[in-house]
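Exam review. A common question shows you a sequence with its structure tokens and asks you to describe the fold in words. Practice with the pair below. Do the first one on your own.
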Amino acid sequence: MVSSHLLSIKEKKLFMKHAHFRNFARGLTLVSLLAMFSFSFPFGGDSVEIFLNKKLLFRQFMHEGEQLKTVTINPSAMKQEMEVNYKHCGVAGKSRMLALKNLKNQIVKTWHFTDVNSKEASMVINVADIIQGLKKNEDRVHLYYSSKELPGGKLLADIVYQAQVVAAK
């Protein structure tokens, strides 16, 4: 009878150790989840990539508070192409359009793109068209994207025209 009573105490101690371990494991899991979601990761969402003659200029997730990127072009880029890839949760939009707006927010030039079923749906524009879209005494325009999924449009980049090529020292 004494041995069964001791076994029962051993079992209680073992159970208590497991109960404390389970509570500790639950607490650690909760803390880990809170820590993981307290950082902002670009899960899903929209993203943009801009290339100049196949060279990546920048890749950015389109979250609030992101700093506006600036693309500088000059006369030597006249025959080059700018490629814009905008994705809505990894998929190309429908009824896509790029627009240049001057500093008065007036549309200077627009490009419309056909709908595609591909994830890689590049929108290619000639740099010469951007330069021609600039009026005299203007050296800066804004590049906007809009689509069926984003009818209000989104400012993608500032495009600055540098008329003189600055030589490297």
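Now try the second one, then compare your answer with the model answer below.
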Amino acid sequence: MNSFEGKVVLAGFLYYFSFSCKHHPPQVSLGKYPRIGEKAREQLSLKYAQVNCRIMKTEIGAVNALPTVTVLVGANVDGKPTYTAIAWVGVIGRTSILISVNKQRYINSGIKKNQTFSVNLPSENLVEKTDYCGIKSGKDVDKSLLFTNFYGKLENAPIIQECPVNMECEVTETFDTPTHDVFVGEIVATHCEDSALVDGNVNLGKVKPFLLSLTDKGYWKTGDKLANAWEIGKNIE
């Protein structure tokens, strides 16, 4: 095939591809065109990558589809422990946690006053009590009665014994948003059940935390360890 024939094949293919990809997912194997010259093959690959087409996905709106771990945040309000369930939790660094709490939550006043809070990681067997803490207000019920409560280094950050992992935090920054109070906490101490430790590290397979999905308003289980972070990617070289 000469250069002219190669250009004709390329132009015809790109026309067909740009039209058909609106209705069908692009599945192209350049091996089907063994007689096209190397330069034409490179151009074909480039055009294939640049064609703006829809690849069989459905737009579902501006939906936050990120699954997030569900935790129980603890604080003292008027000298008494209370808890609320949240899934708006972020990691700023190895020793910093960000929590975003709706302004209407009863617990906010205690966090603001004492500048401390706890983050308790519940297991699957606590999903019912966790959900209860998210739909009931501390103004109306004493949610601390659901758990065995204790304190560590911070006297105003109550900790839940039944949760296998707990972190005590001191507030370092607070951000005000129209709907939520965002608290940044420095981790002062982390507590973990011996049964959830493997070689001194928290083993999520033993903790069995669960995730919240906003798209279906469901709690989802986690699974087994997939790979070693900062290690598995080295296989691509």
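Model answer, second protein: The first strand starts at residue 68 and ends at 69. Confidence is low (pLDDT under 50) at residues 6-28. Full marks require stating both points clearly.
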